[in-house]
Amino acid sequence: MALTPMMQQYLEIKESNPDALLMFRLGDFYELFFEDAVTASKVLEITLTGRDAGEQGRVPMCGVPHHAAQQYIGRLIDNGYCVAICEQVEDPKAAKGLVKREVIQVVTPGTWLKDGESESRFLAAVTKVGLLIGIAFVDVGTGEVWYGSASDEEALRELLVSYRPLEMLISDAESALAPKLEEYCKETTARLSTVPHSSTRSKQELSSITRQYRVVHTEALGLETPSAEAAAVGRLMLYLEETQKQVLSHLKSPRSFENAGQAFLDVVAKRNLELLETQRNRQKKGSLYGLLDKTKTAMGSRQMRRWIEHPLMNVARIEARLEAVEWLLGELFVRAELQEWLARVYDLERLIGKVGFGSANARDLVAIAQSLQAVPQVQARLNAAPPRLLSQLSQDLPDLSQRAAQILNILVDQPPLSVHDGGMIREGADEDLDAFRHMHVDGKEWLAQFEQEEKEKTGIRTLKVGYNKVFGYFVEVSKANVHLVPDRYERKQTLASAERYTLPELKAREDEILHAEERALAREYEIFVSLRDEVAAAIPAIQKTAERLAELDAILSLATAAVEYGYVRPVVVEERGIEIVNGRHPMVEAAAPLSFVPNSVDLGSGCDFILLTGPNMAGKSTYMRQIALIVLMAQIGSFVPADSARIGVVDRVFTRIGASDDLGAGQSTFMVEMVELAQILRQSTPRSLVLLDEIGRGTSTYDGMSLAEAVMEALLVPGRNPLTLFATHYHELTERAVALKRVENFSVAVQETKDGVTFLHAVVPRPADKSYGIQVAKLAGVPGAVIKRATEILAEREQEAASGRRMLAGADAAAEAATAVEAEAPTVPAEVLDWLAEVEGLAVERMTPIEAIGRLDEVVRRAREVSTWAKSR
């Protein structure tokens, strides 16, 4: 079926971009056709119309104005779609026949530059080479590129949750990884994009790295080939080439996130400790990030988040930050002046990203220049700073004052958003532009004078001179005054209420005026593009400036928080151990500063394991969390909420706190807890900090208590023994703790009266003797009848337990009496009894065939030994 030439062109371009909605430039609009139009009209809530497509008749169509396209593209991206932007790539005036069009960019969730967004927006690529899973991340807005590897799918998931990519790339040959990535996509609404697999493409992916960074070998970037990491970075680079249709000059050199100088925090620890967002409503406010983020720039805020997610282990680097925070804390005026200047700095990282993309407008360049103007002022206040870190920051700031001056001397203070409509360049910045503008202005003045003269000559007071793109300049006269029009007027267009005419002198001036305006607009755009290219050449220096200002902003933020909340400088050491005097939970204290009860802890010197008992609501979880938070705050270089703190750096914080389930994966709360516990037991080291809350709940009392005791013993094994806080309701464990080395019993104090209990929130060095569950239920508002009945049942149970103990004592006496009689009977050796108990405990159903044969052989051998012994008796 024959289609119009334009529709044939549309379908040919669409065939090359099947997975994207094609926005096809027609004049001042981007149009979508066929199924793309139906989809876009629903998502964008715009009218679905139609267009003649030839013999096929009318086909669905919808469109958006080109000047507002970005907001519509953003809505499509936020709904999970990709958008191919198809532009005219030749001048319509010079085109012979159909104007040539090409896709100039494919916008995807991972490559969308969203205006005003301050959070990182990552695109990820996942590969598998041998036994290793390679993974790489890029934030095209800031230019950050990170890479590393994962040993298994669980480690891969940890990285995905940590970086939160909005789009992930995988080849169609790596189906084994697809289920895990699809699972993540369902949880987060991220997009999973598939790229083809072939040996040729693999080579293209690796060569795209060398093209992007202009190096001969990837080893120059620290990427060995072949490797899973290099394959992942290459997949990212080639995908960006294919979708963005250019080399992005602002991308920074790839960096490995597998840095031995940083402590690792998994998603469970981040969630339980509320490092980045609260558990209840998933908001920044109320989290540690929300508490410490006093930054003045978007770059500084992102830096603060990174510091919280990746605490340092290098004592020298930690001390350098602490020294800088301490100095700024005492320099009120310097701190205030620095923050005042930083408040004038825009998001340089994202602005320079737009320059790298070639999408920056004049306002973006002015914002860059105004930001760079703050640098000399910042340097002046840091030059005299004693802390080495601050003086180094000052020295590392490039001198870009001339570049800033150049931008501000060329561009007006408040340029328009569009770069094609003029009004960007200052008067006097370019002689040719000024000449074109003067010609245009002179022409406008001539038109105004010509209109007035014609009114006087003809006597038509309503006569006016107008313009449109089709007919050019014209004289318009209303129908009522047509009889007054002179013969020298040549009719050009008839309207319902007026006639339009042209005159020889008006035609002569039209070319001059329009030519001047066109040349002025063309010259403005030429000057702007040249200026943008010069700014692009300074991208590395501007990125370095952005990094240093972000670091300074984060340090200032820590100093501000320390002043505001009354924090103290911790002592951070290499030696293992945590000693905190009167520590406080930072977020809880901020919410209720007057009622918070501080508590101390001493782990690592004489005690590695604290068994913490006490009722619910007494503050056990708060106490454990505050210790972890103080440790992490110290390791990011922050002052801490305590009277004093001595922190030996930890390599990882493990948490098993609170109830959670994963019903989608078929895992109950108890199963989730056991999975997390298994990870702790496998990965913890003597340098780790472990927080465990109510291990063993969710199963029978004896099962749970046995499991809890076994976990205690496992965490005390030399070579693994991490610093541990273990909260439990199993009071029987307190007796076991007494017998174990480097274990101490602590509890949360409770004051009991005839009216109920009062939680004192003070941690004391003794075990709790009760759980106070009924009293807590009463405080929670459980009906009185239930409380009364529970009290009666508890009394009965306690009486039964006492009777059981008496019966047991009687049984012990009877056993002693029988011992004298049995003394004359043959005594079975202890080793035989042990062996019989071992046989009884064999779990045959869990053995492999080889294991079962081996154990059977052992049973037969021991049975023969027992038989020989019996015959000898």
UniProtKB/TrEMBL annotation:
<dbReference type="InterPro" id="IPR036678">
    <property type="entry name" value="MutS_con_dom_sf"/>
</dbReference>
<dbReference type="GO" id="GO:0006298">
    <property type="term" value="P:mismatch repair"/>
</dbReference>
<dbReference type="GO" id="GO:0005524">
    <property type="term" value="F:ATP binding"/>
</dbReference>
<dbReference type="GO" id="GO:0003684">
    <property type="term" value="F:damaged DNA binding"/>
</dbReference>
<dbReference type="InterPro" id="IPR000432">
    <property type="entry name" value="DNA_mismatch_repair_MutS_C"/>
</dbReference>
<dbReference type="GO" id="GO:0140664">
    <property type="term" value="F:ATP-dependent DNA damage sensor activity"/>
</dbReference>
<dbReference type="InterPro" id="IPR007860">
    <property type="entry name" value="DNA_mmatch_repair_MutS_con_dom"/>
</dbReference>
<dbReference type="InterPro" id="IPR045076">
    <property type="entry name" value="MutS"/>
</dbReference>
<keyword id="KW-0238">DNA-binding</keyword>
<feature type="domain" description="DNA mismatch repair proteins mutS family">
    <location>
        <begin position="688"/>
        <end position="704"/>
    </location>
</feature>
<dbReference type="InterPro" id="IPR007695">
    <property type="entry name" value="DNA_mismatch_repair_MutS-lik_N"/>
</dbReference>
<dbReference type="Pfam" id="PF00488">
    <property type="entry name" value="MutS_V"/>
</dbReference>
<dbReference type="InterPro" id="IPR027417">
    <property type="entry name" value="P-loop_NTPase"/>
</dbReference>
<dbReference type="InterPro" id="IPR007696">
    <property type="entry name" value="DNA_mismatch_repair_MutS_core"/>
</dbReference>
<dbReference type="InterPro" id="IPR036187">
    <property type="entry name" value="DNA_mismatch_repair_MutS_sf"/>
</dbReference>
<dbReference type="InterPro" id="IPR016151">
    <property type="entry name" value="DNA_mismatch_repair_MutS_N"/>
</dbReference>
<keyword id="KW-0547">Nucleotide-binding</keyword>
<keyword id="KW-0234">DNA repair</keyword>
<comment type="function">
    <text>This protein is involved in the repair of mismatches in DNA. It is possible that it carries out the mismatch recognition step. This protein has a weak ATPase activity.</text>
</comment>
<protein>
    <recommendedName>
        <fullName>DNA mismatch repair protein MutS</fullName>
    </recommendedName>
</protein>
<dbReference type="Pfam" id="PF01624">
    <property type="entry name" value="MutS_I"/>
</dbReference>
<dbReference type="Pfam" id="PF05190">
    <property type="entry name" value="MutS_IV"/>
</dbReference>
<keyword id="KW-0227">DNA damage</keyword>
<dbReference type="InterPro" id="IPR007861">
    <property type="entry name" value="DNA_mismatch_repair_MutS_clamp"/>
</dbReference>
<dbReference type="Pfam" id="PF05192">
    <property type="entry name" value="MutS_III"/>
</dbReference>
<dbReference type="Pfam" id="PF05188">
    <property type="entry name" value="MutS_II"/>
</dbReference>
<keyword id="KW-0067">ATP-binding</keyword>
<dbReference type="InterPro" id="IPR005748">
    <property type="entry name" value="DNA_mismatch_repair_MutS"/>
</dbReference>
<dbReference type="GO" id="GO:0030983">
    <property type="term" value="F:mismatched DNA binding"/>
</dbReference>
<feature type="binding site">
    <location>
        <begin position="614"/>
        <end position="621"/>
    </location>
    <ligand>
        <name>ATP</name>
    </ligand>
</feature>
<comment type="similarity">
    <text>Belongs to the DNA mismatch repair MutS family.</text>
</comment>
<dbReference type="InterPro" id="IPR017261">
    <property type="entry name" value="DNA_mismatch_repair_MutS/MSH"/>
</dbReference>
